[in-house]
Amino acid sequence: MVLVVNNELDNRVAGKPFPGIDPNDSQAAQKIMYDFGHTHYWPETLDLHLTVADTGSIYVDTNGNRRYNVERHFVPDWMRVLGFQGRIKNERKPQFLPNNDKVFQKAGLYPLIEPFDLKGVGGVSFRCLDQTEQDDTWLDLPFVRRPPRCRGK
């Protein structure tokens, strides 16, 4: 049985921490949020090279068809996500140890290749195991000419 101890999941192996939630449970809302925050929406590791992302707006043309207006086109060199807990497919099951940073997952998107005005921008994010702690995110902006902040206590 999975329990919440000191805002962290205890006795969890993999998958959704609370797959069958009783709506009458006094902790149902908290369990739903743990399921949402601790479910892998892709395998435990994700490596995407030269992916493409577009941003824009949806509009309806004169014929009543919905169209997508591309406003910005982004191409990051790499997008990577590494899951540390609840691993079921990749080695180091069920946890990726050591986990000195006490994170559920680490993710990075770096560097942007396009658009030209954002070339070199990248970011790294740590999702904490303790849900009362805020996630750590760093953004490297080469045009600011300052090194990114390092994680520290």
Structure description:
The chain is mainly beta and 153 residues long. The protein folds into two domains: 1-39, no CATH class; 42-153, no CATH class. The protein is built from one helix and eight strands, in the order E-E-H-E-E-E-E-E-E. The protein has one helix at residues 28-37, and strands at 3-5, 8-10, 45-49, 53-60, 66-83, 103-114, 122-128, 136-140. Strands 3, 4, 5, 6, 7 and 8 form a six-stranded antiparallel beta sheet that branches. Strands 1-2 form a two-stranded antiparallel sheet. The longest helix is centred in the N-terminal third of the chain and has 10 residues, at 28-37.
List the helices and strands and how they pair.
Blueprint: E1 3-5, E2 8-10, H1 28-37, E3 45-49, E4 53-60, E5 66-83, E6 103-114, E7 122-128, E8 136-140
Antiparallel strand pairs: 1-2, 3-5, 4-5, 5-6, 6-7, 7-8
